[in-house]
Amino acid sequence: MDNSHTRRGHPCWFRKPKVGLIAVNDGVLLRNHICRILKNHFRGKPYYVDLLDLFNEVEFQTASGQMIDLITTLEGEKDLTKYSLSKHCRIVQYKTAYYSFYLPVACALVMTGENLDNHIDVKNILVDMGIYFQVQDDYLDCFGNPETIGKIGTDIEDFKCSWLVVKALEICNEEQKKALYENYGKPDPVNVAKVKALYNELNLKGVFEEYESKSYEKLITSIEAHPSKAVQAVLKSFLGKIYKRQK
Question: Which of 44, 64, 171, 182 maximizes the CB count within 10 A of its CB?
């Protein structure tokens, strides 16, 4: 839906011959299989209804985040003054953090009879981890190797509310801001190259490295404050899989 060309190293499904908009219906079919799979495996379990509710709620949160992301890039309504760290955080919290990080752990808690309301601290850590993960994604979209990350980054062309552009707007001077306004969100490779050159001029690689280091330290501190060593181990294993990732 973001008009990309590749995902996971392969052409996007809707770009395959004879697929096109049929991909929308394919997506609906896949979504419906979630309920069918849950029904087949867990219908007789006491936590079945809670599991269904959890998936439905996380799906709503993800779709809401995706909607906020998409409506910020509407043609004719592109306005960099609307972009801020708070808006970026809201988008990625809903679009990425809940389904990628919170959902797997929440499922395990529900299936062991736990009340999710008693684990808000775990939820907050996982959401923070998901936000950090998406910031990495924004960084790799621009600076990552397409062969390694499995896609060709298009955040600049698509006028995405990326962490990179938000940080650039925070630290650039008026001349640099003017260049950003003139070139961001345009598909011409010349404009994209100018934005990337500006990112390098602002040393956004260094800014990201500092953010990554501080995020890791903050997450480790929060994890080690949890009273359960078993929970700490799970959360640390999640963090270990994404810290300084290259794809």
Answer: 64
Q: Is 6 helix (H, G, I), strand (E, B) or coil?
A: strand
3-state secondary structure of 7: strand
Decide if pLDDT at 76 tops 80.
Answer: no
pLDDT on residue 125:
98
Residue that is written with structure tokens 């499904």 in the block: 13
Task: Provide the pLDDT for residue 168.
Answer: 98
- Quick one: tokens of 138? 């924004």
In one-letter notation, the amino acid at residue 123 is: K
Q: Which among 161, 93, 174, 167 is positioned nearest to 132, based on CA atoms?
A: 93
- On whether the CB atoms of residues 55 and 38 are closer than 8 A, the answer is yes
List the structure tokens of 26. 């394919």
Integer Cα distance of 140 and 64 in angstroms: 24
Q: How far is CA 86 from its chain centroid?
A: 14
10-25 average pLDDT score: 93
Question: What is the β-pairing status of strands 10-11 and 6-7?
Answer: antiparallel
Its pTM stands at 0.89
